[in-house]
Every structure is written in structure tokens, then in C-alpha cells.
């Protein structure tokens, strides 16, 4: 059953889109990640133009983050003050990122930038995830002590210090503000929530306790992704609502099965498996970048 995607200008099988959404939802449920950094490359693989894949995926991030943050609010695992500072930076970064996105699209370089950005990001994330999972298994078997994620360095000597009681921190507001700006730009150009980078930054750079990191990250991501979706729709007209709804429907169902499966597999092994999936996706992107197109054509004037 084919359906026409008006913004992507592409006819795609409905079952394929539902299955793709279900796959990403399953991975999100089992691995505990948003899945946006995998959804966009997979959409590109099935023929969706990169600008549309990026903007539409940002719309999905909003829906998935809202459902996640509600539970964290109920458990008191959201540092609202920290989230507001991160959000302030995120709104600035995402607004600037959409303008950069528009400029790159106008000069015809947005497809290359998106593919290269994903190739680099997926390679780094995949290697780090696999390394961390393998290191944790080795440390546990050798009964080595876990490394402390928090230490005081140059970042904690910056001015404009603010107290964050929920996170038990007294640090410069410039640090989370800068992190928010970087995540905002990333969200705009790549269509991801940025949690896979924001969460480690909140733990290792800002020094937040892990109990409030996920909830605070989701709180910030909701508004940044919503800002990206709105600006992409208004300035670039690249949000395909039909595509977004089909992916969302599949991901909601897939996430339920994934969360059930997650209880049966050790966490360290999950990180290794996710790292392998990410690296494989990166390999496919690199192949797409360097391989010779099937249809070669040239543009020229009249003879």
C-alpha cells in the first residue's frame, strides 16, 4: 500500500514506514535512547531527502520526549532550574542552527553536510558506546572500582555562579548555557534531540547526579525540538506531517516491546549491541557518500 508524502515528494509503502517507526521505537525502548540519530539516516536510506528527514524527525523527538518527561516529573527527577538554563542556550542554538540549515540549503550543500555530520557523529558515538560497555564488563569481572564521573576543573571556576539545589551544584551558569547552545545547533542541523551527547555532558562536564540527568535532558529537549520543528516548517517548509504521523504510530508500538525486552538483557551488553548498530549505520552512510551514483548525469547548456 503506497502513500504519497507531500513534502518529501515521494511515494512510500505505508507498512515500510510503520515498520521503520516500530524498529526505532523498539530500539528506543530496549536501549533507552531517543533513536533520532538512527531514524534520520534510515529515512535517507529509503529515499527521503535529507532536509525533510531532519526536520520531520525533530517533530518525533517532541512527542517521545513529552511522554518520557511526565514520568520523571512525577518521581521528582527533573532539575527545572538547570533545565531552564539549558533551554535558554538551546533556543538560541536551535534558532541559529535553522538559519545555518537554510543557508546551506540555499547554496546546495545541505545534503552533504547532513550526511557527513551523521557519519562522524555515528562513528564517535558507536565507538564510545562499544568501548564503555566492554570496559564496564572487564572492570566488573576484574572487580575494579568504577571511575567517578564528576571532578572539579577549569569549567567550575567560571564566573556567574548559580546554585542548583536539585542537582546539589554551585557552578557558573555559562557552562550549561554553552552546552545548551551546542545541543540546539546540533538539533537543528541533524534533527536529533541531542540526548546522546547532552546526557554525557551533563554527567561528566557539568557534574550533575545521574538521578536527575535523564529527566532534565528530556525537559530541555521538548522545547528545543519544538522550536526546531516550528522554524523548519516556517522558514524551510521541510516538515512532512504525514511521514511524522506514520513514524510516530509505529514507534509507540515498538517502544512497548522494546522496554519489555530491555529487562532481559544486561545493560553493558545493550551498550555494546547499540554501538555495533550505530557503527554499521555509519558504515552505510560512508558508503553512500563515496560510492558512484547509479544514475550519472550532467548539466550543460545547448550545444
TrEMBL record:
InterPro entries in alphabetical order: TM_pro_TauE-like (IPR002781), TSUP/Inactive_protease-like (IPR051598)
Record keywords, A-Z: Cell membrane, Membrane, Transmembrane, Transmembrane helix
One annotated Gene Ontology cellular component of this protein: plasma membrane
Regions crossing the membrane: 12-39, 83-104, 116-138, 169-197, 203-226, 238-257, 269-287
Record localization: Cell membrane; Membrane
One Pfam family named in its UniProt record: TauE
UniProt keyword Cell membrane, yes or no: yes
Membrane topology per record: Multi-pass membrane protein
Family: Belongs to the 4-toluene sulfonate uptake permease (TSUP) (TC 2.A.102) family.
Protein name: Probable membrane transporter protein
Species whose genome carries this gene: Limimonas halophila
Amino acid at each position: 500500500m503506497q502513500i504519497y508524502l507531500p513534502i518529501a515528494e515521494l511515494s512510500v509503502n505505508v507498512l515500510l514506514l510503520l515498520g521503520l517507526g516500530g524498529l526505532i521505537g523498539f530500539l528506543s525502548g530496549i536501549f533507552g535512547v531517543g533513536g533520532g540519530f538512527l531514524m534520520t539516516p534510515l529515512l535517507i536510506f529509503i529515499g527521503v531527502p535529507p532536509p525533510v528527514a531532519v526536520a520531520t524527525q525533530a517533530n518525533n523527538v517532541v512527542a517521545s520526549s513529552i511522554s518520557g518527561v511526565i514520568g520523571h516529573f512525577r518521581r521528582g527527577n527533573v532539575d527545572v532550574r538547570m533545565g531552564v538554563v539549558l533551554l535558554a542556550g538551546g533556543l538560541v542554538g536551535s534558532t541559529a542552527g535553522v538559519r545555518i540549515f537554510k543557508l546551506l540549503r540555499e547554496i546546495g550543500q545541505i545534503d552533504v553536510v547532513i550526511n557527513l555530520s551523521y557519519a562522524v557523529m555515528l562513528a564517535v558515538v558507536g565507538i564510545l558506546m562499544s568501548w564503555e560497555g566492554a570496559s564496564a564488563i572487564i572492570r566488573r569481572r576484574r572487580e575494579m572500582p568504577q571511575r567517578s564521573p564528576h571532578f572539579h576543573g577549569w569549567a567550575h571556576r567560571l564566573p556567574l555562579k548559580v546554585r542548583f539545589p536539585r542537582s546539589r551544584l554551585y557552578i557558573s551558569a555559562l557552562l550549561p548555557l554553552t552546552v545548551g547552545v551546542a545541543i540546539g545547533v546540533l538539533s537543528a542541523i541533524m534533527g536529533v534531540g541531542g540526548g546522546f551527547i547532552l546526557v554525557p555532558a551533563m554527567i561528566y562536564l557539568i557534574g550533575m547526579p545521574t538521578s536527575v540527568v535523564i529527566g532534565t535532558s528530556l525537559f530541555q529537549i521538548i522545547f528545543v525540538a519544538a522550536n526546531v520543528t516550528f522554524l523548519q516548517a516556517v522558514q524551510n517548509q521541510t516538515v512532512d506531517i504525514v511521514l511524522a504521523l506514520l513514524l510516530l504510530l509505529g514507534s509507540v508500538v515498538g517502544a512497548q516491546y522494546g522496554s519489555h525486552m530491555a529487562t532481559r538483557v544486561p545493560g553493558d551488553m545493550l551498550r555494546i549491541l547499540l554501538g555495533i548498530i550505530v557503527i554499521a549505520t555509519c558504515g552505510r552512510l560512508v558508503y553512500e557518500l563515496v560510492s558512484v551514483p547509479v544514475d550519472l548525469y550532467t548539466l550543460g547548456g545547448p550545444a
